[in-house]
Amino acid sequence: MENSPVPTERPAEADPRFALMDHAMGYLFPAALRAAAALGVADHLGTGPRPVAELAEEVGADPLNLYRTLRLLATRGIFAEDGTGRFALTAAAELLRTDVAGSFRSAILMLTDRTFWLTAGELEEAVRTGTSPFERLFGMPFFDHFARDADTAAVFHVGMAAMSDPENPVIARACDLPPEAVVVDVGGGHGGLLLSVLRDNPASHGVLFEQPHVLREHRLAELGADDRWTLATGDFFTEAPPGDVYLIKRILHDWDDERCVRILRNCREAVYDQGRVLVVDAVITQGNAPDPGKVIDLLMMSSLTGRERTRAEFEALFDQAGWRLTRVIPTGTRLSIVEGVPAT
Ligand SMILES: C[S@@+](CC[C@H](N)C(=O)[O-])C[C@H]1O[C@@H](n2cnc3c(N)ncnc32)[C@H](O)[C@@H]1O
């Protein structure tokens, strides 16, 4: 009897049920990524490839289960197995190291934190009721939870700073700022965007406007002797410091329309003559193409009260808050700059 030829194609894979199965199990990849990041595996590979048994001992893991986890991550270029049970860093895995320039480990731990993970598991509730399950699960609103203590705060705010680091210099370059402007970064986190803006605009002054516990960890001192900045503690729902330009990055997407109008109106009331607002967020366009903005939109739905918006939706917010939308500036990142000037 002749041997049957080894099949070179897998026609069954054309059955769309296999694709649906893959979508349904997609959550296991971020689970593996979180486990590797949390265990600090990448920190133990800085000197070269290592046998998984050694790695497991150093990070305090079960060798077989660590192997299975890294094997999955290696299918998408995060770590690489050499065929003898040794794993090495790849360019992506390098960024999971804790103390390298551009480390993304804290961003991964933030994005896979239980505050996002558990609420995503309850997305159906948000879809049915129009409200996030966050308060039911965590007993308080999102930003109150992340103000509970220093360790909890660090999960979000250090992670958020790391997530914003790659986009901040690019966005700062795309901001078309008037000379000698007082630039207020509203909810500016640890100040990463303002750092880039001040470096690019030597005649500007920066104001980092944030909650007090977040300002305690700000990074503006990285400018050294250059002291063109001040800190402003406050609540953006009740006030804004005076300035020429209001940067509002990854803020409006956290909130419902009514609260966005309050933030924008406070800036409108405080802005100097000839000033402007630069809202930096994803701008959603129509169509079925993959769009990271539509992914993070569901994070806003499940953990917060906000959403990603279209240009028309930003225009409506601006109108209600006394601003006129002048243009949308693409930045080359996933975010655009939505510019407004005071409506006359
Ligand atoms: C999603 S983060 C964005 C941080 C930063 N703009 C960035 O792009 O990396 C939202 C920020 O809003 C700040 N925030 C939340 N509620 C606030 C309030 N009522 N007043 C001032 N800042 C607030 C948080 O502390 C947090 O840093």
Automatic annotation (TrEMBL):
* Keywords, ordered alphabetically: Methyltransferase, S-adenosyl-L-methionine, Transferase
Q: Which residues form the signal peptide?
A: none
Domain O-methyltransferase dimerisation residues, every copy: 21-97
> What residues form the catalytic site here?
253
Source organism's superkingdom?
Bacteria
Q: Which GO terms describe its biological process?
A: methylation
Q: Does the keyword Iron apply?
A: no
Question: InterPro entries, from UniProt?
Answer: COMT-like, COMT_C, COMT_dimerisation, SAM-dependent_MTases_sf, WH-like_DNA-bd_sf, WH_DNA-bd_sf
Per the database entry, which stretches of residues form a coiled coil?
A: none
Question: Where do the O-methyltransferase C-terminal domain residues begin and end?
Answer: 122-324
List the Gene Ontology MF annotations in alphabetical order.
O-methyltransferase activity; protein dimerization activity
Specify the protein name.
O-methyltransferase
Protein's organism: Saccharothrix carnea
